[in-house]
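Input chain follows. Return C-alpha cells only.
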Amino acid sequence: MAGWSNAARNGRLGRVRPLDPRLLRHARATRSYLAACVGLGLLAAGLIVANATLLAAAIARVFPRSRTEPGAVTGLAGLGWLLAAVATVIAARAAVGWAQEVAAHRAAAAVKSDLRNGLLAHVARLGPGWLTGKRSGELVTLSGPGLDALDAYFSRYLPQLVLAALVPTIVLARILPADRVATVTIVLTLPLIPVFMVLIGLHTEQANRRQFRLLSRLAHHFLDVVAGLPTLKAYRRAAAQESTIRAVTSTHRQVTMRTLRIAFLSSLALELLATLSVALVAVGIGLRLVEGRLDFETALLVLILAPEAYLPIRQVGVNYHAAAEGLAAAEEVFAVIETPGPARGQRAHVPDLGTTPIKLVDVTVRYPDRPAPAVREFHLTVSPGEIVALTGPSGSGKSTVLAAILGFVRPEAGSLSAGGVELSDLDLTAWRRSIAWVPQHPWLFAGTLTDNIRLGVPDAGPAAVRAAARAAGAEAFINALPRGYDTPLGDEGDGLSAGQRQRIALARAFLRDAPLVLLDEPTANLDGATEAEVLAAVHRLARGRTVVLAAHRPTLAALAHRRVRL
C-alpha cells in the first residue's frame, strides 16, 4: 500500500471532515441515513422543547407564588393530563432514540459493505502489478478493523452532529420570546464550545492517524513474521523477532494511552465550558426572578432548556474521538479507490486465440516503485498451438511478460496485440475469459476442494470437476482424503503439500479449457517425483492449446517448441 500509506504518513490525505462528501458518492446508504437522521433529529428537538414546556407548567402549578394564583393546584389531582403528556413525551423520546440506533447500525453495516466491495473491486482492477511490493497487512487492517471503526461514526457521532445543528436552533427559538437576556447569553457562549472542539480536534486527529499507522505497521509486521516463520525457525532467527514485535506493540500501547488521555482531557474542557455557560444563564435567571422581573414558569422553562442547547455540541466533541479512527480509515479507503486504474478498452469481441497469433513489439514495462524497467524493448510472436518457454535468471522479467499478456500491467511503450487488435482496445474481462493462468504460487481459499477447482468455472458439474482433476493428476490424492472432493481446506490450501496445490491449480486450467494457457514456474520448489507428475499434467494441458510458460528448470523448458531468453 505504498501509495496511500505514504500519503497518510506525509499528511497528504487531508483533514478529516465531519461528513466526507465521498461517503455520499461511494456509499448510497449514507444518503438515506442522513435523511432519516435529519427527520429524527427534528422530531427529537421538538420533543425536547415539549418536554421542557410541560415540566415547567407542571412544576409552576404545584409551587405557585400564591394559592389564589390562577391554575394553582394543591395536590397531584389537577395534574393528571400534564403528567400523562410528560410520560407520553418521554416515551416518544425513547422511541426516537431507539429508531436512531437501529437506523445507525443498519446504515453503518451497509456503508462498510459498500466501501469494502468498492475497495476490493478497485484493488482487483489495479491488478497484481499495483500490489507488487505493497503492504498486504495494511490493506487487511484497513478493510477489516479500520472500517469497523465506522460503527461509532454512524451510531454516535453523525446523529449528534445533526442534533448539534438542529437542537440549539429550535431551543433558542423557543427561549427567545420567553427571555431575551438568556437567549443572548446562550448565543454568546455557545460558539466557545465549537472553537475549543476545533482546537482539540486538530491535535486529536494527528494522534488518531499516528495510532492507526502504528496498528497497520504492527499488522503488516506480524503477518510477515507468521508467513516467514518456517524460514526464521530454519535459520534460528524466530526468537530475534520477539524483541521487534515487543517494541512495536509497546509503541502502539503508548500512543493509544496518549490518545485516550487527550480524549479525557478534551471531554473535561468541554464539560467545564458547558457548565460555566449554563451557570451564567442560571445566575441571570435567579437575579431577575428575585427582583420580580421574571415569572417562575418562564424561569423553569429556560433553566430546563439551557443545558439542552449545549448538550448536543458537547456530545459531538465526546464522540468525535470514537469516530476519528473510522473516518481516517475511510479516508485511506478513498485514497485507494481514487487511485487511477489502467485504461480499459471497450471492445468486447476478442479474437480467437486458438487461431490468432499474439505479438509483443518493443514492449517496455516499468513498475512505479522501481528505477529500472522490468522489461525493456521485448519482442515475441506466439503462433497458435505453439509452446513458448521464457527463460532467464530471476528478475529478468519472465513473470512481467505474462502479467502484460494478462493485462495486469500496462506497457509504457510498445505494442501488445492479438490478431492485429491492440490489447488496450479490448475489454480485459472478455480477454481474460480466453486465458487460463497458473501462477507460481496459486492461491487456494478456505472452502472445499471442489470449490477451489471450480474457481474459474463456478457452474461446472461434478463430472467435469472430476475429469479436470484426473487430467491434472490430482484424482489419486483427492480420493485418498477422508472426504474426497468435499474435503475442506484452510486459507492458502492449508492441509495440502506444494505439489498438491500446484495440481489443483492445473485442474482449474483443465476445467477452464481456454485456448491460451500461461504458466509461471509451475514446478518451482517441488521434489523430483512431484515435478515429474506436474510435468506430465502440463504436457497434457498443452495439447491443442497455445502455451507461454516461464521456466527456470531445463525439464520444464524441454516441453516447449521454442525458448526465448530474457
